[in-house]
Amino acid sequence: MSDLRLYFMECGSLKTQVQMIKMNQGLGDPYEVPVPFYLIQHPRGNVLYDGGNALEVAQDAVAHWGQGVVDAYTPVMTEDDFVVNQLERLDVDPASIKYVIQSHLHLDHSGAIGHFPNAEYITQRRELEYAFTPQWFQKPAYIRPDFDRDVDWLLLDGPHDDEYDLFGDGAIKTLFTPGHAPGHMSVIVNLENDGAMILTADACYTMDHYNRTALPGLIHSASDVADSVDKIHRAVDKYEATPVTGHDPEEWPKFKKAPEYYS
Ligand SMILES: [Zn+2]
Questions:
Q1: Is 110 domain-assigned?
Q2: pTM of this prediction?
Q3: How far is CA 58 from CA 63, 77, 96, 102, 202, in A?
Q4: What separation in Å is there between the alpha carbon of 153 and the centre of ligand 1?
Q5: Which end is more exposed in the chain, N or C (fewer Cβ atoms within 10 Å of the end residue's Cβ)?
C-alpha cells in the first residue's frame, strides 16, 4: 500500500563463530553478524519489528547476559545503537509506536520491550510461556528482565492466528515460523514501490539457511525449522516477495539502511 515505509536498522553486531550460525560448519572460525530490527511507518501508527539488544548490553554486557553468553556471542554495541536512541535520531517519538512485533524473545531481539508507553507488544503465547520456562539448552538465550515487564501483550496463538493482519489492510502480516524458537514469527510487509518483503528474522539466519544448506546453530526443533523454511518459500512465491534474512553478514550490507527507507 502507499504511505508505507520500511526502515532497516541495526543494533550493532555479534562476534561469534560460524557454527553458532550454521550448525556443524566452520568450527571455531570467527563470524560477525549484524543485529537487525525494523521500523514500519503505517498511516495509522508506527510499528517496530524487534528492537535489538537491551540498553544494558551497551553498558555492561557481562552483567546483563552473563559471561558464557558474551563469550559465545560478543556484542558490539554502543548506547547510540539502542532502539530508542536510534528512533530519536529519526525524530520518531517513543509515544508514537503503536505495536512492537517480537519475532521471538531471544536476547538480541528483546531490547524494545517496555520502552514504548503506548505500544501493544505482539508475540506468540507459546513464546512468552517458553521464555519464562525454557529448556536448558535455550535458557541462556532468554534474559528474563528484558521481557518480564508490565506491558500490554497481544498474544497470538500459533497456526490459529497465522497471517495475523495488523491493520486489517494487508500491509503488515505476521507469519508463524517456529523452529529456531517455539513461537517465532516472521513479518510480511507489502510495499507499493519496492514490492513485498518478508522479514524472516531468525527463521532464516542467512541465505544458506534459506537455501536449505544449513540449520541454525541454536535450535528448538529442527523439524519445525525445516517446515518454516518451506513455508517462507511458499510465502515468497505467493507474495512475490524479497526474503530478508535475519543475521546475514553477506546479505545485510546490500540493503538500504535508515534514514533511507523502502516504500
Ligand atoms: Zn534467536
A1: yes
A2: 0.96
A3: 11, 5, 25, 21, 22
A4: 20
A5: C
Pairing of the two strands 120-124 and 195-201 = unpaired
Residue 139 forms part of a structural domain: yes
Q: Tell me, what's the pLDDT at 217? A: 87
Give pLDDT tens digits for 148-176.
999 999 999 999 999 999 999 999 999 99
CATH number at residue 127: 3.60.15.10
Residues of the chain under the 70 pLDDT cut? 1
| C-alpha 217 – ligand 1 centre gap (Å) | 10
Total of domains in the chain: 1
259 lies in some domain:
no
Q: How far is the CA of 55 from the centre of ligand 1 (A)?
A: 18
CA 254–ligand 1 middle distance (angstroms): 22
Residue 263 belongs to a domain: no
Q: What is the pLDDT of residue 219?
A: 93
Range of the domain at 225: 5-254
> How many angstroms does the Cα of residue 241 sit away from the middle of ligand 1?
23
* Distance in Å, CA 3 to ligand 1 centroid: 31
